[in-house]
Amino acid sequence: MLNFVLFGPPGAGKGTQSQKLIDQYQLIHISTGDLFRAHIKNQSPLGQKVSELIADGQLVPDEITIAMLEEEVDKNPEAKGFIFDGFPRTVPQAIALDEFLESKGSSIAGVIALDVDQDELTKRIAQRQLESGRADDQADKLQKRIDEYFSKTIHVLPYYEAQGKLSKVNGIGNIDAIFTELRAVVDQY
């Protein structure tokens, strides 16, 4: 199984590039954001709790996120592999993901970090907010999410770098040019 983590701050282009990777390599995309939004839309008890947390710009607790992610992996036993988007966000989540995949006889092949500066992120998210109206893209909540990424989430990168699994790709520029760089990384595996 070929499993990748697509890493980057809010607005880095993870969703856009994930779709291109899915089409190219027939991988299953697991976005914790998409999982959260689905639970919120279905008004499940979990969705109601997640809705409150996201509306406040907070991260969803590990146990909730990990349980949803494991459920999603288990739904796809014949998958060629997965692209994890928006997860892991902390080193404990990365360890939990490694342990879960190991229990399935698999592992993370590589971690690809989309490198995008804060000015570009702000522009992209402002545009996305206009188009999608996502509550978590509002200016105050967005800043919380970006701050959370740069103060906490970014610390996951050294965890994977120590395993020799980290690659960085410039996330600014033409979408197809960025994808060409991503493909070069994935093709190594």
Question: Would you summarize the structure shown here?
Answer:
It contains nine helices and five strands, in the order βαβαααβαβαααβα. By secondary structure, the chain is of the alpha/beta class.
Say how many strands there are. Answer: 5
How far apart, in Å, are the first and last alpha carbons?
11 Å
**What integer value in Å does the Rg equal?**
16 Å
Helix percent band? 55-70%
Characterize the main sheet. 5 strands, parallel
Give the low-pLDDT segments.
Answer: none
Strand content: 5-15%
Shape, principal axes of CA atoms? globular
- Return the string of H and E elements: EHEHHHEHEHHHEH
Structural class: alpha/beta
Average pLDDT value? 86
Give, in spatial order, the strands making up the sheet with the most strands. Answer: 2-3-1-4-5
By DSSP (H or I, 4+ residues per run), the number of helices equals 9
Structure overview:
Helix content is 57%, strand content 12%. The chain has 189 residues and is an alpha/beta fold. The chain has a five-stranded parallel β-sheet, with helices on both faces.
Write the layout of secondary structure elements.
Blueprint: E1 4-7, H1 14-25, E2 28-31, H2 32-41, H3 45-55, H4 62-74, E3 82-85, H5 91-103, E4 110-115, H6 118-132, H7 139-151, H8 156-162, E5 166-170, H9 175-187
Question: How would you describe this structure in keywords?
Answer:
189 residues; globular; 12% strand
